[in-house]
Amino acid sequence: MSRSIFKRLAEPEEAILLVKERLGLSLVERILGQGAISVGITDLEGRLLAESITSPRPLPWYPRSLVDGCAVRSVDVAGAFEDRPVTLRYGGRIKIGEKPARPLEPGECMEIDTGAWVPVGADAVVPIEYVTRPREGEARIERGASPGQGIALPATDVATGDQVAWPGAPGTPELVAALAAIGVKRVKATRRVRAAVFSTGDELVEPGSDPGDAGIFDSNRFQLIAWMKRLGYEVLDLGIARDTIEDVEDMIIKAVGEDADVVVTSGGTSAGLEDVVYRALGRRGEVIVHGLRIKPGKPTILGSVGEDRLFIGLPGNPRSAANVFEKVVTRLLSTLGLPSPAYSPRVVEATTVTALPAEKGRHTIVPVSLAPGSGGFLAFPVAKDSYMIASYPKAEGVTIIPAGAHTPPRPGSKIRVELSREPGDKVIYLTDTRLISPPTRPGVKNLYFPTGTPETVIQLLPPGQVVVTSLTPKVEEVAEATEEARRSIVLATRSGQCRRAAVFLPYSTRTKLPGDPVRVPAPRAETAMVMLEQGYVDCALVPGDYAEGLDGFNLEEVDTERVALARVVEPKP
Questions:
Q1: pLDDT per residue over 159-177, tens digit each?
Q2: Are 33 and 147 in contact (CB under 8 A)?
Q3: When you count CB atoms within 10 A of the terminal residue's CB, does the N or C end of the chain come out lower?
Q4: DSSP code at position 243
C-alpha cells in the first residue's frame, strides 16, 4: 500500500471555499426536503427554519423614546442651549408601557421614559441631562433638538411584510429573539441536523475499559460528540473503527444508512501506511481537501459523501483536532448554512455603503451584514440602534468605532469587521417596494436597505446583486435591469394641510412641498404612513403604492419614478 504525500496544503479560507463550491446549499436543501414539523421557538436549537417568516406589523409600531428625557416640539426648543434655556410648561410624565392620555400642546413638554410611547404633537425628545425643573409646572430645556431626534420611529427595525427569517436559517438565539419580537411563538422547522461521529485507530480503547500496556483512551470522539450536542445536533455515536479501509468504509456506509448529514471522524488522516481514511472516503465520496496550512492540524481531510453530505476528517492528535474544529470547522459549518458555534472573531476589511453612527466619548458597536462587492466586502449596517432586534439575525459581524475617532465612517470608508458567522447569500433591496413579492429561497436572506442615493451603492455591487432599486441612467447600466415599472410619488394629507411632513428618505431632497413644512425624515415608507395614520404628522411624501386604499386622506401625485427589477443570481446548487 502506497503513502499519500501532502504535495499541496490549502489555506483554511481556501479549503472552506473549495468545499462550498462543491456542496453549495445542497446540505440545507436536503434537510429541508425531508419535511417539517411545528415547533416552539425555544426548540429551534440544532434545526433549520423551514419557512419564510415576514413581520405582520411594523416594529416599532409607534414612536418610542430612545432616552429618558422630555418629549417636545422641535420648533419650541429651537436655539435652546445651556446659557439660553427655553422654559416650557411641564405636562406630566409618560411611563413605559402606557399610551399617552392626550397630545402634546404647543409650548409644553412631557417627561418620558426610555422606550415609552411618544405623544402625538411631539417630534423630538431632549435627554434628561439637559432638563431642569426650576419650579412646579415648568421645565427648563437647555438643548435644542431636530425633528425625529431621540425617537425610535415606526418600522425602522422592520416594516410590515419584511422578511425576518428565511428557509434554512439556523435556529440561533438571535433568530429566536427576532421571532418573539414580532409575536411569533411557533414555526415550521426541520428535524435536528444529524452528525455521525467515529474515531479510527488500532490503539484506541473505550474509556472505562482496560487499556493494557499500549492502549490509548479515545478522547477525541467524546469531545466531538460534546461539541455537536452543544449545537443541538442529533449525534450518532458509531464508536471506533480499526485501521483498515474496509472498517472505515463500513463506518461511512453506516453513517449514510442512519441518514447523517455530517460525518466527523478523527485519526487516520495523515500520510502513514495505516492512515486509510482518505482511501475509504475516495471509495464512498470525494476528497476535496487533504492537508491544511495550519499548525497544529495539517493532516485534515474535508470532503463529501455522496452528493449532499459533509465529511470532516480531523487529525488524531487531540490538540490538532481541537484546533482545526475551533478555527476551521466552525466556519465551514456556518458557510454551508448549518448550525455552528460562536468562534474566535475573524476580522475582514469592508467598505461601508452608508455613514455609521458614532457617539463621542464611547465605543460604538455597529452590527453589519456583508455582501460581495466589486472590490471586496460591502458592509450594510443592520440593527444599528439598541431597540432593534427583529433585523439583528441578518448581521454577520460587528464593526467597532473607537471613542476617540475624530469622525465616524462615511459612505465608502474602509472599516474592520469582526465576523460572528460567515457571510451568506442575500438579495439586497435599496428602496421600499410593493411592486414585487420578494423571493424566498433556501439559505438566502432578503436585506432591506432604503437609501437616498442607490446609484452610489450599486456601483460597488457586482451585476445582479440588486433586485429592486430606483433608476437613473447610470444605475440602469450597472444594475442590468430586465424589467422596469413606473411608480407614482404622492403627498398624502389630512384635510389638505401640510405643516409637519414625514418624508420618505429617498425623496428628502428631490421634491419640494407646499408651504415649506417641518420635515421628519422617514427611512422606510411605512414609517411615514404610520406616523400619518397615528397623527404625529399631517402629511406624508411616499410611493403611491403605500398610500393606496387609505380612507380619510387627500392624495396628490407630485412626481413619478422609474423602478428597476434587476436580474437575480441564483445560488449554486
A1: 999 999 999 999 999 999 9
A2: no
A3: N
A4: S
> Domain containing 526 — which CATH number?
3.40.190.10
Kindly state whether residue 546 falls inside one of the protein's structural domains: yes
* 353 vs 412: CA distance, rounded Å: 6
Residue 304 lies in a domain: yes
How far apart (Å, rounded) are the C-alpha atoms in residues 342 and 389? 19
Report the alpha-carbon distance of residue 525 to residue 24 in Å, rounded: 36
DSSP letter string, 338-352: S-----SPEEEEEEE
CA atoms of 2 and 165, how far apart (whole Å):
50
Q: Are 402 and 523 part of one and the same domain? A: no
Range of the domain at 523: 484-562
Instruction: For 522-558, write each residue's pLDDT tens digit.
Output: 989 999 999 999 999 999 999 998 887 777 888 999 9
Does residue 13 come out as left (phi exceeding 0), alpha (psi in the -120 to 50 range) or beta? alpha
Is 59 a domain residue?
Answer: no
135 Cβ partners below 8 Å, 6+ apart? none
Closest CA to 143 of 57, 214, 84, 188: 84
CA atoms within 13 A on the CB side of 143: 16
